[in-house]
Amino acid sequence: ISKGPGNSKPAKSTAVPPGPPMYLDLVYIPNHSNRKNVDVEFFKRVRSSYYVVSGNNSASEEPSRAVLDSLLEGKAQWDDNVQVTLIPTHDSEVMREWYQETHEKQQELNIMVLASSSTVVMQDESFPACKIEL
């Protein structure tokens, strides 16, 4: 039997299966914050004080705007209003636009985006960094 586009079932997310939430201190959002692996269910289940958002590839849509929006939607469903800090590893156009467009919602949900201009220099190599104290 041939399945055409109209006959196929919508793909279900397999990023994180439904279940009780997990509470963590620090979470690195997997796969360069690609929307194929991280959705609203991820943020409903994987609850953290700090999320590291990697990705600096606009051609691959990393970090994904959908992932950042999923954080807002998932966090809105938490029972408590614990502060969440989002730590981007790179300055990107997607991150800047999302920050500006959703700033009010971030404040409502007690989400802070950490902007860091610190640089670490090691053996003729430099890279952006930030300090986290748990």
UniProtKB/TrEMBL annotation:
One of its GO terms (molecular function) is actin binding. InterPro entries: MAP1. This is MAP1B protein. It comes from the Eukaryota. GO terms for cellular component: cytosol; dendrite; microtubule; microtubule associated complex; neuronal cell body; synapse. It comes from Tyrannus savana. GO terms for biological process: axonogenesis; dendrite development; microtubule cytoskeleton organization; regulation of microtubule depolymerization. The gene is Map1b_2.
